[in-house]
Amino acid sequence: MRLFLQYASSGIATGCTFALVATGFVAIYRVTRVVNFAQGTFAVVGGMTAFTLLGHGLPHFLAEALAVVTAALVGLLVGAAAIGKRGTPPLASLIITLGIGIGTYAVLILVFGDQPVSFEELKGTATIAGVTMPLQFALVVVVTATCFAALTLFFNWTYLGKALTACSSNPHAARLVGIDTTRMGLVSFALGGVLGGLAGVLLTPLQPVSFDSDVGLAINGFAAAVFGGILRPVTALVGALVLGAAEALVAGYWRASFQSGVALAVMLALMVWQASRRQIVEEGTA
Amino acid sequence: MLEVRDLVVRYGQATALDGVSLKVGRGEMVALIGPNGAGKTTLLNAISGLLKPARGDYRLHGRVAQVPEGRQLFSDMTVDDNLRLGAWKAPNRDCRRVYDLFPPLLSLRRRRAGTLSGGEQQMVAVGRALMAQPDLLAVDELSLGLAPMIVDNLAEHVRRLSHDTGMAVLLVEQNARLALDLCRRAYVLEAGKIVASGPSPDLAQSAAMRAAYLGGAMDEVLPVPRGPTKPASSGGKDTGKEAS
Q1: Which of A86, A208, B126, B142 is such that its CA lies 20 to 30 A from the CA of A253?
Q2: Which of A165, A170, A179 sits opposite B72 (nearest CB)?
Q3: How far is the alpha carbon of A158 from chain B, nearest alpha carbon, in Å?
Q4: A2-285 domain in CATH 1.10.3470?
């Protein structure tokens, strides 16, 4: 049981980083209807920038904060390329983000090298309900929870957040009341950059990040986001935690190389179950 | 307040507006009548800045706000949020003046806009446009899908507001009778061109107008034109020419 809880807690920590990536997908998709396949890249940029800055002797927190800002700027640039020109169809924007995600490999190798990087995690352990876990796990969970609370407040209580929701709810009406939907799309890309960057900064101490780590992150994040129809952050959070926990348990009890495959199979089964349930409801009301 | 001169708008090859000129003065209510696909909504979107004209221009003193066809509310957001977003470009986000104008909305303010009745939704749509404190209110199909009593009530509110504040109103309607009753002047738009204009009583007397839009005595001789829904169609052209 102790072992199980330890695997689970490690899985929940990884799941939290998936959740941050997933929320990035959701934030961008809601406003622009674009699936941003460069979302994993934001995390890699965040993690590698933090590593480099720490290497230059910057103190913790400052280095991580600057890394997240860098990821946000990268998000803004990707957004400008993907949706900057008005009237770009979402599918074309999606291909642009995919292209940028792959094209960035070259830049990442030039800037950061081709070796996986990692930096020291938060030292110490925390014991919660009899389970001892590294303090880094607790940090990841606390940051993710704070992030979700802040996002909820932002979207539900601020005027800018409402304007972003309005773009998602009815883009035509948003333009009618004078909201610049392209600018709001750029805001959402920057937000996606922040969320991806945070995920990268939190994940790098747990598992080394290299230039091509974006694929695994993006697939897990996207699977979690799709669980909520790419529209609901909270459902995406649940999906991400299920994925993270499943991966850690498979790796712990079975084989690490099976972890992604099994986790995604679990996800697929959940989605099929979810979809079949929805159909029954619709037939019932028809 | 609004002066449109020789406006041409094209969607690719199709010409939606073909040299339209019209004027709306301060505190004036002007109707724009015409069949489906005549270019009425295109004209509103052009003066709302959503479309770029290919030729011609318009001068607008102050702000324009549009009540779009089919309401176009943020249906999964609350009534209050819908109203507040209407003030995105305006300095004042206080919704009280709209609740004063439409008291039924006050008790519905926390409800999601998509769950309201058609009449209530139209109130929200008008209220959202008013939140921009417009100098010109452009209303697209106020009456569409609503019971006559609800339409009369809404129209009366708009008329009184225009009278009290000097707000100009451009009322786009397929329901010509309502539009002519409400506005002192009217323009008739068909296939992207203004085919008739003048004081509402004169237009209401015109035989061709009566036949084409008011369901008058000549109903059986000349069918009511039903143009295709695409812009720049030739729907109702023949009857329109006679009206001018």
Answers
A1: A208
A2: A170
A3: 11
A4: yes
Cα distance from N-terminal residue to C-terminal residue, chain A = 47
Q: How far is CA B212 from CA B23, B145, B204, B241, in A?
A: 24, 21, 11, 11
Of A170, A172, A177, the CB nearest to B88: A177
A170, A175, A178 ranked by CB distance to B74: nearest:
A170
Could A163 and B68 be called an inter-chain contact, meaning their C-beta atoms sit closer than 8 Å? Answer: no
Residue of B48, B85, B94, B98 to mutate, testing the A interface (most A Cβ within 10 Å of its Cβ)? B85
Assign B136 to helix, strand or coil: strand
Q: Which residue has the tokens 């937000």?
A: A191
Domain boundaries, chain A: 2-285
Give the residue on A whose Cα is nearest the Cα of B66: A176
Local confidence pLDDT in tens for the 286 residues of chain A: 778 888 888 899 999 999 999 999 999 999 999 999 999 999 999 999 999 999 999 999 999 999 999 999 999 999 999 998 888 888 999 999 999 999 999 999 998 888 898 888 877 887 777 777 788 888 999 999 999 999 999 998 999 999 999 999 999 999 999 999 999 999 999 999 999 999 999 999 988 999 989 888 998 999 899 887 778 888 889 989 988 998 888 888 888 788 778 878 887 887 788 777 765 554 444 3
Distance CA A171, CA A247 (A): 38
